[in-house]
Amino acid sequence: MFQNFLIGLREGLEAALVVGLLLAYVRKTGKARLVPKIWLGVAAAVCVSLGFGALLTFGPRGLTFEAQEVIGGTLSIIAVGFVTWMIFWMAENSKHLSQELGQKIDAAQASTAAVITIAALAVGREGLETALFLWAASQSAGSGATALVGALLGILIAIALAWLIMRGALKLNLVTFFRYTGIFLIFIAAGVLAYGVHDLQEAGILPGLHHLAFDLSHVIAPTSLVGTLLKGIFNFSPATTWLEAGAWLLYTGTVLTIFLTKHKAPKPAAKLAAAS
């Protein structure tokens, strides 16, 4: 539940800030007529994201076990690719997001379709990424309704935070926020990647299903409190194959090193005003 809460919080805050910045920009620049167009684009993005989530959830049902494992493993790996790109993109662009969105609105103000498209793409990108990664994380952690509750709670809190930020009632260093949540998501993504590899091993696409790097089931029972927490947060499996362990180590070592090198911690005095 916690990993889905974090995903919902981070992605929800991104999407909510994008909507808030778009609305603030058109109002400050005397283009309030564009507000309904922005909300129309947001509604379209939400509908597409919900439809995509439903397709991921119910689409594979009725298929053979091998087919489900192939689909699950492939989509998990794709989800890791998307979330990795998102982590780096937001860390790089959080400082200049308002300016970038303003430039796009200026370029498209004469076209209703263009403004709707900008809002839909800005929010839809987050929505599709969230749906895919939540699905992959929930599959790997074996969670169902609790995953949805955690994600919804994170999204609701994100909307409240974004509203407070845009109203000036709350100052949040977004650079720091996206940096540290990015680090945590890298570990979550590594677990999803390992799960995707395991799915492909069970489907017979990848070898080594019965070659274990370690088996700690006698120490950390999968049904124990510790085992459940580790599985739910980091997708940790007490019995891990060499290929899973290798994928986890390679991904974490490479991505975390690049991320920490490229995005060093900002100085304490550096503050980011989201509405500026």
Structure description:
The chain has one domain. By secondary structure, it is mainly alpha-helical. The model is unreliable at 269-276 (pLDDT under 50). A two-stranded antiparallel ribbon has the order 1-2. It has nine helices and two strands, in the order H-H-H-H-H-H-H-E-H-E-H. The protein has helices at residues 2-28, 35-58, 65-93, 97-108, 112-141, 145-166, 174-202, 225-234, 242-262, and strands spanning 212-215, 239-241.
Summarize the structure.
This protein has 276 residues and is mostly helical. It has helices spanning 2-28, 35-58, 65-93, 97-108, 112-141, 145-166, 174-202, 225-234, 242-262, and strands at 212-215, 239-241.
Tell me the major beta sheet.
2 strands, antiparallel
Percent helix, as a range, is over 70%
Number of helices: 9
Estimate nothing, just give the exact number of structural domains. 1
* Portion in beta strands: under 5%
Head-to-tail CA distance between termini: 34 Å
Give me the strand/helix succession.
HHHHHHHEHEH
Class based on secondary structure composition and strand pairing? mainly alpha
Spatial strand arrangement across the major sheet: 1-2
- What Rg, in angstroms, do the CA atoms define? 20 Å
Mean pLDDT, to the nearest integer, reads 79
pLDDT < 50 runs, ≥5 residues: 269-276
For the secondary structure, the number of strands is: 2
Query: What general form does the structure show?
Result: elongated
